[in-house]
Amino acid sequence: MPEKKIIAVVGATGAQGGGLVRAILADPNGGFAVRAITRNVNSDAAKQLASLGAEVVAADVYDHESIRQAFDGAYGAFCVTFYWAHFSPEKEIAEAKMLAEVAKESNVKHVIWSTLEDTRNWIPLDDNRMPTLQGKYKVPHFDTKGSSDAFFRDLGVPTTFLLTSFYYDNFINFGMGPQRGPDGKLAITFPMGDKKLPAIAAEDIGKCAYGIFKKGNELIGETIGIAGQHLTGSEMAAEFTRALGQEVHYNSISPDAYRELGFPGADDIGNMFQFKRDFEEYFTGARDLSVARSLNPELQDFRTWLSRNIARIPVGEGEATA
Ligand SMILES: NC(=O)c1ccc[n+]([C@@H]2O[C@H](COP(=O)([O-])OP(=O)(O)OC[C@H]3O[C@@H](n4cnc5c(N)ncnc54)[C@H](OP(=O)(O)O)[C@@H]3O)[C@@H](O)[C@H]2O)c1
């Protein structure tokens, strides 16, 4: 039996990386072994991965040598960065740069870099349709990832650039689930007008990444966009209505109103939705459902995911924003 190719997974206890770890472990004859990277091998999440059969190693993206050791001998690496852990564009750029440099030093044969668009290529900083944030970004957590593609390219790291989509899981973890308005009615709130939002189960991102690794060299150098479904706010609300058995409305607000919602990062997320709204044709076109399904035949549409996860979504907590 040939030796298994090791995939080192950054963010292994998290949403994207966790999906990849589980996908590799679920396919014991697939020819791959997984090395799950965590800062704390004793956390419940890390222990759970170990109990499933993953090699779990300690490393921190802010400790170059620890990541070098974690990538040592690996055939592949899944690289993701952690914007929402610190809300700092400069830190996220430093994380990406370090991952690219270590992948190069370690001679990793195939990197998947979890990226997003540098929206400034569509909306230059002097375009006033949305505010410039922190002096040099339109959508900080996108722009940092998109501009970091260059680290991988310039170093000649054999990379597949994976354009991800809005997680369905944000309805569980990001407080985006149906909330009750002053009228007592349930609503979900987005500034998307009647435009479609590409969305995906976070777990399916990891499964698609596994599909990319399984293709060998075929997708090196390529940018691959994935989504499980493209949905309007009304379509998402209709799916919630169906899953909950009670009416859920789509509360369509302006990007300005969204930016003013006051939660940490509301300006960044408001600009993000506006970018997706204003460039719907590009943004949905870059995330081909059939490509995602070919990489991951278990890809879930929103209805399927909701049917499995509706009990995990906080419903009716707080007031809908209007
Ligand atoms: N929410 C969305 O809709 C969405 C959509 C597309 C892209 N994204 C992007 O996804 C990225 C986050 O990925 P995710 O959602 O998979 O993450 P996540 O679920 O928040 O988990 C990230 C994991 O990374 C690890 N980590 C954090 N800081 C680290 C460090 N300094 N060194 C090493 N490991 C570290 C943590 O593991 P340990 O605690 O075990 O170390 C954590 O479990 C963000 O940059 C975000 O912009 C989000």
List the keywords:
binds NADP nicotinamide-adenine-dinucleotide phosphate, alpha/beta, 17% strand, 13 strands, single chain, 14 helices, seven-stranded parallel sheet, 322 residues, three-stranded mixed sheet
Mean pLDDT across all amino acids: 96
Strand content: 15-25%
Give the low-confidence spans.
none
Number of helices: 14
Overall shape: globular
- The ordered string of helix (H) and strand (E) elements is EHEHEHEHHEHEEHEEEHEEHEHHHHH
What is the distance, rounded to the nearest whole angstrom, between the alpha carbons of the first and last residues? 60 Å
Helix content: 40-55%
Small ligands present: NADP nicotinamide-adenine-dinucleotide phosphate
Radius of gyration, in angstroms, nearest whole number = 20 Å
How is the main sheet built?
7 strands, parallel
Q: What is the topology, as strand order, of the major beta sheet? A: 3-2-1-4-5-6-11
